[in-house]
From TrEMBL:
<dbReference type="GO" id="GO:0019239">
    <property type="term" value="F:deaminase activity"/>
</dbReference>
<keyword id="KW-0479">Metal-binding</keyword>
<keyword id="KW-0378">Hydrolase</keyword>
<dbReference type="GO" id="GO:0016814">
    <property type="term" value="F:hydrolase activity, acting on carbon-nitrogen (but not peptide) bonds, in cyclic amidines"/>
</dbReference>
<dbReference type="InterPro" id="IPR001365">
    <property type="entry name" value="A_deaminase_dom"/>
</dbReference>
<dbReference type="Pfam" id="PF00962">
    <property type="entry name" value="A_deaminase"/>
</dbReference>
<dbReference type="InterPro" id="IPR032466">
    <property type="entry name" value="Metal_Hydrolase"/>
</dbReference>
<dbReference type="GO" id="GO:0046872">
    <property type="term" value="F:metal ion binding"/>
</dbReference>
<protein>
    <submittedName>
        <fullName>Adenosine deaminase</fullName>
        <ecNumber>3.5.4.4</ecNumber>
    </submittedName>
</protein>
<dbReference type="InterPro" id="IPR006330">
    <property type="entry name" value="Ado/ade_deaminase"/>
</dbReference>
<comment type="similarity">
    <text>Belongs to the metallo-dependent hydrolases superfamily. Adenosine and AMP deaminases family.</text>
</comment>
<feature type="domain" description="Adenosine deaminase">
    <location>
        <begin position="20"/>
        <end position="305"/>
    </location>
</feature>
<keyword id="KW-0862">Zinc</keyword>
Amino acid sequence: MELSRQAGRQPLTLDAARALYRYTDFTGFLMAFKAISEQLQTPEDYEHITWRMLEDLARQGVVHAEVYVSVGVVYYWRRIEFEPLFEGMERARIRAERELGITLYWIFDAVRHFGPEEAARVFRKAAELQPAHPSISGIGIGGDERRTGPEPFRELYAEARDAGLRLTAHAGETTGPESIWGALNIGAERIGHGLSAIDDPELMEVLATRQVPVEICITSNVRTGCCPLLHDHPVRRYFDSGLMITLNSDDPALFGSDLEGEYRIAHENFEFTPEHLRELASNSIEASFLPPERKLEWLQRIEAWEHITS
């Protein structure tokens, strides 16, 4: 509503704004994402929402965030230049680090079902901008994996790795374990969702042995219908099987989720103890793309807090 009231725009009523966020399945979520993204038009809009996001994260006690930005949507659906929008986002990031003490890395996300050619634009833009903006840490592929698997992006992932970018991929959210295998095979260092790994014992063993970080999004998986019931979510089985899992909010506004809430769900619905939650917090630092010295600093602070509260 606030964005729609800028000069020259069609103001939204509260009901109309809320309607943008209603969906019943994963396809509906993608359409809602598109409709909401269309409300973002200027660098100031992107600066505004980035600052709001970082304020919210800081309130929850988040000290470092690695945030997917769907550059593929800007290029393909919006057909507008990304650099001015990114400058707005960067202004908010720098301000938040100075005023709130929270750091942020960007992961440039391509929409897989737009195809490799569109993904190449996203990944190469990340490589082009990274020297001037070291906050750009990596790349990934989101979107509808039912339509496009990881394999078509193999060469682009190798190119991104050679450019010094870190590699992530959403996989196993709406499809089976083969999508996760495919993501690993093209070099993904972190797996987003990984929901279907539970169906493949060999894959579970590989993920546990290699300690591949799996970004778990409990609320998101239930809201999109990828996991029909909350108690069916495999998060606890992953933890007990030795996988390196992290808890993540996915798209907070679209899913009514936040990171603090995901930790609460893990505690209240899956019997994660405070000690377990500290382990998950440590996992998030280990799985981050922070430099080793920064990781060590935060891990030591988590360990010190454990001693204080035990």
